[in-house]
Amino acid sequence: MILEAKEAKTQYDILREIKDRWSPRAFAPEPIDTKTLNTLFEAMRWASSSMNEQPWRVIYAHKGEEAHKKIVDALMPGNQIWAEQAPVLMVNLVKKTYTRNGAPNKSAHHDLGLAIGNLALQATAEGIGLHQMGGFHKTQLEELFDLPEDYEAVTVIALGYFGDPDQLPEALRNRELEERNRMPIDEFVHHGQFSR
Ligand SMILES: Cc1cc2nc3c(=O)[nH]c(=O)nc-3n(C[C@H](O)[C@H](O)[C@H](O)COP(=O)(O)O)c2cc1C
């Protein structure tokens, strides 16, 4: 059974794409065409960023391309096992300094996150699943792509249309079917003062 949306049980009503987005590990083999990928990149483009620096950069590759293999090579084994089947893999980078004056950009990671948030919601609207990964060998990936000193690989994302969870090893299949859950609002929202 292919699961496209894993609707969050929200405390308040929110946008459909936020509710439905989840991180799949099973992908259909069908590729993502260039126009659809560009729609996702367009969504990234319009994220806000400190000083409008737009510090995000991406390197993407389709399954079967050399760069896709390179990205798989740099993933941790627990991610390799499922992510190598993803039709598209993408490395998300930041430029660490402001172009205008060379000063360190302390908002670069934050702003990449905003752009990826846009991409995630656009992908959900397009019926595409994405799974973000921090589990990769950073230095290896940066060397494989010969990144200049001023750039850092922050995350890798697997993208594709939703696949059949039965194609996954049992432990991963069970995780695929688990409900999404979150801490309640009052555990992270404080009115007027911080409390633990
Ligand atoms: C920065 C970041 C790094 C992550 N790294 C991994 C990873 O290496 N492997 C993995 O399977 N999932 C990874 N995830 C996915 C999270 O585990 C997942 O988003 C979280 O459990 C919430 O589930 P949901 O996205 O389905 O709502 C990562 C997510 C983020 C945002």
Can you give a write-up of this model?
Keywords: Oxidoreductase. The model has no long low-confidence stretch (mean pLDDT 96). The chain contains 8 helices and 4 strands. The longest helix is centred in the middle third of the chain and has 18 residues, at 108-125. It has a 4-stranded antiparallel sheet, with helices on both faces. Helix 3 (66-74) packs antiparallel against helix 6. It has one domain (25-178): 3-Layer(aba) Sandwich (NADH Oxidase). The radius of gyration is 18 Å and the shape is globular. With 196 residues, it is an alpha+beta fold. It has helices at 16-20, 34-45, 66-74, 77-83, 108-125, 138-144, 170-177, 185-188, and strands spanning 56-62, 88-95, 128-133, 151-161. Bound molecules: flavin mononucleotide (FMN).
Question: Mind sketching the topology for me?
Answer:
Layout: H1 16-20, H2 34-45, E1 56-62, H3 66-74, H4 77-83, E2 88-95, H5 108-125, E3 128-133, H6 138-144, E4 151-161, H7 170-177, H8 185-188
Antiparallel strand pairs: 1-2, 2-4, 3-4
Helix pairs in contact: 2-5, 3-6
Flavin mononucleotide is lined by residues 22-23, 79, 132-135, 155, 180.
InterPro entries: Nitroreductase (IPR029479), Nitroreductase-like (IPR000415)
Organism: Marinoscillum luteum
Domain Nitroreductase: 18-161
